[in-house]
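In the laboratory, one determines a bound structure by crystallizing the protein with its ligand and collecting diffraction data. In a computational setting the workflow is compressed into a single prediction: the sequence and the ligand go in, and a structural description comes out. We illustrate the idea with flavin-adenine dinucleotide.
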Amino acid sequence: MVDRCHEIRAFVDPIPNLFLIGRNGMHRYNNQDHSMLTAMAAVDNIQQGRTDKSNIWNVNVEQEYHEQKGA
Ligand SMILES: Cc1cc2nc3c(=O)[nH]c(=O)nc-3n(C[C@H](O)[C@H](O)[C@H](O)COP(=O)(O)OP(=O)(O)OC[C@H]3O[C@@H](n4cnc5c(N)ncnc54)[C@H](O)[C@@H]3O)c2cc1C
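The predicted complex, in structure-token form:
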């Protein structure tokens, strides 16, 4: 399923007034900071009339985020 998320993105991205954000919204293992950054990017896009969602999808792609159990 996870490796087919690009198909969901390709389907929803053209919808101009729909912005998928956060952990559940993007089906991505975002932490709180990532989730807030995606929300801020969505607000920027709405304010600027930008319908391209790439800046949202570019959050949390540089490095994998893994929660680790404490000692
Ligand atoms: C156990 C646990 C520990 C975590 N610890 C950390 C941590 O230490 N540091 C960290 O950075 N991140 C942590 N995270 C991750 C962090 O919680 C998430 O990354 C972040 O909360 C995701 O934010 P979000 O806005 O995408 O979703 P959420 O914070 O889940 O917000 C979604 C909101 O939408 C509401 N909602 C759902 N459906 C509907 C509906 N139909 N109508 C109206 N409202 C609806 C929900 O009630 C919820 O309030 C942890 C997550 C878990 C589960």
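The chain is about 50% helix and 0% strand. Keep in mind that any predicted model is a hypothesis to be tested, not a measurement.
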